[in-house]
Amino acid sequence: MITDLSLFLGWSQHSAIALDSKGLVLVVREGGGKFWRYEFRLNDKKFKYGIGNYPEITLDNARKIHAVARQLVEFAKHPSTGCD
Fold first, then answer.
1. Considering only Cβ atoms within 10 Å of each terminal Cβ, which end of the chain, N or C, has fewer?
2. 23: which residues sit within 8 A by CB, 6+ positions away?
3. Alpha carbons 32 and 12: distance in angstroms, whole number
4. What domain range is 14 assigned to?
5. Mind listing the pLDDT tens digit for each residue in 4-58?
6. Quick check: is 52 in a domain?
7. How many Å apart are CA 73 and CA 78, to the nearest integer?
8. Residue 69 belongs to a domain with what CATH number?
């Protein structure tokens, strides 16, 4: 199971780590910085939605934001536009 401690200690190389099959990704920059991203399809197009930097946004909070964003996509709304 992925924990905040394993995220903090590991993955120092530039990469993107998919945390689940539903699009939540942790991107590790070359300098070691990490940020959360949600990758999804809407109307047959691929999109990326930035959630925020780790550790400011914890794993638990990233999962909560991701869940809300997924619900918006299910209703054909892009997460960045919210409930417009």
1. N
2. 38, 39, 40, 66, 70
3. 5
4. 4-74
5. 656 655 555 567 776 777 999 888 888 888 899 999 999 999 999 999 999 999 9
6. yes
7. 6
8. 3.30.160.390
